[in-house]
Amino acid sequence: MKTTLTEENYLKALFHLVDNEGKVTINELSKFLNVKMPSVNNMMKKFAEKKWVIYETYKPLIVTESGRREAALVVRKHRLTEMFLVKKMNFGWENVHEIAEQLEHVHSQIFFDKMDEILDYPKFDPHGEPIPDKDGNIISQDLQKLSNCEPGENVTFASVTLSDDAFLTYLNDRKLLLNTKVRVVKVESFDKSMTIEIDGKTEILSKKATEKILVKK
Protein backbone atom coordinates (compact mmCIF):
# COMPACT_ATOMS: atom_id res chain seq x y z
CA MET A 1 0.00 0.00 0.00
CA LYS A 2 1.33 3.42 -0.98
CA THR A 3 2.02 5.94 1.73
CA THR A 4 0.36 9.35 1.57
CA LEU A 5 2.28 12.62 1.48
CA THR A 6 1.25 13.34 5.07
CA GLU A 7 2.35 9.90 6.24
CA GLU A 8 5.72 10.38 4.57
CA ASN A 9 6.21 13.72 6.31
CA TYR A 10 5.49 12.02 9.65
CA LEU A 11 7.87 9.18 8.81
CA LYS A 12 10.62 11.63 7.97
CA ALA A 13 10.02 13.45 11.27
CA LEU A 14 10.35 10.13 13.13
CA PHE A 15 13.65 9.52 11.35
CA HIS A 16 15.06 12.86 12.49
CA LEU A 17 13.72 12.81 16.04
CA VAL A 18 14.07 9.21 17.22
CA ASP A 19 16.66 8.75 19.98
CA ASN A 20 19.22 5.97 20.41
CA GLU A 21 16.60 3.80 22.10
CA GLY A 22 14.19 4.14 19.18
CA LYS A 23 11.88 6.46 21.10
CA VAL A 24 10.21 9.80 20.36
CA THR A 25 7.38 11.68 22.08
CA ILE A 26 4.12 12.96 20.65
CA ASN A 27 5.06 16.43 21.86
CA GLU A 28 8.36 16.35 19.94
CA LEU A 29 6.55 15.35 16.75
CA SER A 30 3.94 18.07 17.31
CA LYS A 31 6.58 20.79 17.63
CA PHE A 32 8.74 19.50 14.78
CA LEU A 33 5.84 19.30 12.32
CA ASN A 34 3.93 22.28 13.73
CA VAL A 35 0.85 20.07 14.01
CA LYS A 36 -1.57 19.98 16.94
CA MET A 37 -1.21 17.14 19.43
CA PRO A 38 -4.61 15.49 18.73
CA SER A 39 -3.74 15.22 15.04
CA VAL A 40 -0.36 13.67 15.86
CA ASN A 41 -2.06 11.20 18.22
CA ASN A 42 -4.50 10.16 15.52
CA MET A 43 -1.74 9.63 12.99
CA MET A 44 0.36 7.62 15.42
CA LYS A 45 -2.60 5.34 16.12
CA LYS A 46 -2.71 4.66 12.37
CA PHE A 47 1.05 4.06 12.38
CA ALA A 48 0.55 1.59 15.23
CA GLU A 49 -1.98 -0.29 13.10
CA LYS A 50 0.65 -0.48 10.34
CA LYS A 51 3.18 -1.78 12.90
CA TRP A 52 5.46 1.23 12.35
CA VAL A 53 5.33 2.35 15.99
CA ILE A 54 4.31 0.97 19.35
CA TYR A 55 1.76 3.41 20.74
CA GLU A 56 0.73 3.64 24.40
CA THR A 57 -1.11 6.61 25.86
CA TYR A 58 1.12 9.01 27.83
CA LYS A 59 4.27 7.06 26.91
CA PRO A 60 6.94 7.80 24.31
CA LEU A 61 6.42 6.14 20.95
CA ILE A 62 8.72 3.26 20.11
CA VAL A 63 9.64 3.13 16.42
CA THR A 64 9.65 -0.47 15.19
CA GLU A 65 12.18 -1.90 12.74
CA SER A 66 9.49 -1.74 10.05
CA GLY A 67 8.82 1.92 10.89
CA ARG A 68 12.52 2.74 10.88
CA ARG A 69 12.90 1.20 7.43
CA GLU A 70 9.88 3.08 6.02
CA ALA A 71 11.21 6.35 7.42
CA ALA A 72 14.69 5.71 6.02
CA LEU A 73 13.26 5.05 2.55
CA VAL A 74 11.55 8.46 2.52
CA VAL A 75 14.82 10.09 3.55
CA ARG A 76 16.61 8.06 0.85
CA LYS A 77 14.40 9.61 -1.84
CA HIS A 78 15.03 13.11 -0.50
CA ARG A 79 18.81 12.79 -0.25
CA LEU A 80 19.21 11.02 -3.61
CA THR A 81 17.22 13.81 -5.23
CA GLU A 82 19.43 16.47 -3.64
CA MET A 83 22.53 14.67 -4.89
CA PHE A 84 21.10 14.35 -8.41
CA LEU A 85 20.25 18.06 -8.51
CA VAL A 86 23.80 19.00 -7.48
CA LYS A 87 25.80 16.45 -9.48
CA LYS A 88 23.76 16.19 -12.67
CA MET A 89 21.87 19.47 -12.88
CA ASN A 90 24.49 21.78 -11.36
CA PHE A 91 22.33 23.23 -8.60
CA GLY A 92 24.14 24.72 -5.62
CA TRP A 93 23.84 22.77 -2.37
CA GLU A 94 21.90 25.73 -0.98
CA ASN A 95 19.16 25.42 -3.64
CA VAL A 96 18.12 21.77 -3.53
CA HIS A 97 16.24 21.18 -0.28
CA GLU A 98 12.88 22.63 -1.28
CA ILE A 99 12.89 20.86 -4.66
CA ALA A 100 13.73 17.56 -2.98
CA GLU A 101 10.86 18.14 -0.52
CA GLN A 102 8.50 17.94 -3.49
CA LEU A 103 10.14 15.09 -5.42
CA GLU A 104 10.56 12.84 -2.38
CA HIS A 105 6.86 11.98 -2.60
CA VAL A 106 7.16 10.30 -6.01
CA HIS A 107 6.26 6.65 -5.40
CA SER A 108 8.20 4.98 -8.23
CA GLN A 109 10.96 2.82 -6.70
CA ILE A 110 12.46 2.27 -10.15
CA PHE A 111 12.81 6.04 -10.60
CA PHE A 112 14.99 6.41 -7.50
CA ASP A 113 16.93 3.20 -8.14
CA LYS A 114 17.83 4.54 -11.59
CA MET A 115 18.83 7.87 -10.05
CA ASP A 116 21.06 5.96 -7.62
CA GLU A 117 22.65 4.06 -10.53
CA ILE A 118 23.29 7.21 -12.58
CA LEU A 119 24.99 8.78 -9.57
CA ASP A 120 27.13 5.63 -9.11
CA TYR A 121 25.54 4.75 -5.76
CA PRO A 122 26.60 7.70 -3.57
CA LYS A 123 26.92 7.15 0.17
CA PHE A 124 26.31 10.77 1.17
CA ASP A 125 24.12 13.66 0.02
CA PRO A 126 25.45 17.17 -0.88
CA HIS A 127 25.23 18.21 2.78
CA GLY A 128 27.31 15.26 3.99
CA GLU A 129 24.40 13.27 5.39
CA PRO A 130 24.36 9.51 4.69
CA ILE A 131 21.95 8.20 2.06
CA PRO A 132 20.05 5.08 3.18
CA ASP A 133 20.31 2.18 0.74
CA LYS A 134 17.23 0.61 -0.85
CA ASP A 135 16.82 -1.67 2.17
CA GLY A 136 16.80 1.31 4.53
CA ASN A 137 20.28 0.66 5.93
CA ILE A 138 22.34 3.71 6.76
CA ILE A 139 26.03 4.31 7.41
CA SER A 140 26.89 5.41 10.92
CA GLN A 141 29.33 8.32 11.21
CA ASP A 142 31.61 9.36 14.06
CA LEU A 143 31.30 13.13 13.82
CA GLN A 144 31.36 15.97 16.31
CA LYS A 145 30.26 19.58 16.31
CA LEU A 146 32.90 22.10 15.31
CA SER A 147 31.89 24.06 18.41
CA ASN A 148 33.31 21.25 20.56
CA CYS A 149 36.79 21.52 19.02
CA GLU A 150 39.73 23.17 20.75
CA PRO A 151 42.34 25.63 19.40
CA GLY A 152 45.08 23.78 17.55
CA GLU A 153 42.86 20.93 16.39
CA ASN A 154 42.87 19.96 12.72
CA VAL A 155 39.59 18.56 11.41
CA THR A 156 37.71 17.96 8.16
CA PHE A 157 34.31 19.53 7.46
CA ALA A 158 32.04 16.49 6.96
CA SER A 159 28.38 17.53 7.27
CA VAL A 160 25.85 20.13 8.34
CA THR A 161 22.84 19.72 10.61
CA LEU A 162 20.92 22.51 8.85
CA SER A 163 20.13 22.64 5.11
CA ASP A 164 18.71 26.17 5.25
CA ASP A 165 19.71 28.17 2.16
CA ALA A 166 20.77 31.21 4.23
CA PHE A 167 23.14 29.08 6.31
CA LEU A 168 24.62 27.32 3.27
CA THR A 169 25.10 30.65 1.53
CA TYR A 170 26.88 31.87 4.69
CA LEU A 171 29.27 28.92 4.34
CA ASN A 172 29.71 29.51 0.59
CA ASP A 173 30.73 33.11 1.25
CA ARG A 174 33.50 31.81 3.52
CA LYS A 175 34.62 29.10 1.06
CA LEU A 176 33.73 26.50 3.66
CA LEU A 177 32.62 23.45 1.70
CA LEU A 178 32.42 19.73 2.47
CA ASN A 179 35.77 17.94 2.86
CA THR A 180 37.57 21.24 3.54
CA LYS A 181 40.49 20.90 5.95
CA VAL A 182 40.06 23.25 8.90
CA ARG A 183 42.39 24.28 11.71
CA VAL A 184 40.87 25.80 14.82
CA VAL A 185 42.90 28.90 15.68
CA LYS A 186 41.00 30.56 18.52
CA VAL A 187 37.72 30.41 20.45
CA GLU A 188 36.52 33.66 22.04
CA SER A 189 35.63 33.22 25.72
CA PHE A 190 32.97 35.94 25.52
CA ASP A 191 30.67 34.66 22.76
CA LYS A 192 32.36 31.40 21.71
CA SER A 193 32.89 32.69 18.17
CA MET A 194 35.68 30.76 16.48
CA THR A 195 38.60 31.76 14.29
CA ILE A 196 39.48 29.01 11.82
CA GLU A 197 42.13 28.66 9.15
CA ILE A 198 41.33 27.36 5.65
CA ASP A 199 44.09 27.11 3.04
CA GLY A 200 46.20 29.64 4.94
CA LYS A 201 43.36 32.16 5.30
CA THR A 202 41.42 32.87 8.50
CA GLU A 203 37.67 33.20 8.94
CA ILE A 204 35.58 33.98 12.00
CA LEU A 205 32.48 31.85 12.56
CA SER A 206 29.66 32.52 15.01
CA LYS A 207 28.77 30.03 17.75
CA LYS A 208 25.44 29.51 15.95
CA ALA A 209 27.33 28.38 12.85
CA THR A 210 29.87 26.14 14.60
CA GLU A 211 27.00 24.36 16.37
CA LYS A 212 25.61 23.32 12.98
CA ILE A 213 28.88 22.20 11.37
CA LEU A 214 29.94 18.58 11.90
CA VAL A 215 33.57 17.55 11.51
CA LYS A 216 35.74 14.46 11.67
CA LYS A 217 39.29 14.21 12.95
TrEMBL record:
Cytoplasm is among the record's keywords: yes
Question: Where does the record place it?
Answer: Cytoplasm
- Extract the PROSITE patterns matched here: HTH_DTXR
Task: List the InterPro entries.
Answer: DtxR_MntR_Metal-Reg, Fe-transptr_FeoA-like, Fe_dep_repressor, Fe_dep_repressor_sf, FeoA_core_dom, HTH_DTXR, Iron_dep_repressor, WH-like_DNA-bd_sf
Query: Gene3D superfamilies recorded for this chain?
Result: 2.30.30.90, Iron dependent repressor, metal binding and dimerisation domain (1.10.60.10), Winged helix-like DNA-binding domain superfamily/Winged helix DNA-binding domain (1.10.10.10)
Q: Superkingdom of the source?
A: Bacteria
What keywords is this UniProt entry annotated with?
Activator, Cytoplasm, DNA-binding, Manganese, Repressor, Transcription, Transcription regulation
Positions in coiled-coil regions: none
Please provide an example of a Pfam family that matches this protein in its UniProt record. Answer: FeoA
What range(s) does the HTH dtxR-type domain occupy? Answer: 1-64
| Membrane-spanning residues | none
Q: What is its main location?
A: cytoplasm
How is the subunit organization of this protein annotated in UniProt?
Homodimer.
- What's this protein's function? In the presence of manganese, represses expression of mntH and mntS. Up-regulates expression of mntP.
- Family label: Belongs to the DtxR/MntR family.
Q: What is this protein called?
A: Transcriptional regulator MntR
Q: What species is given as this protein's source?
A: Chryseobacterium sediminis
Question: Which lineage?
Answer: Bacteria, Pseudomonadati, Bacteroidota, Flavobacteriia, Flavobacteriales
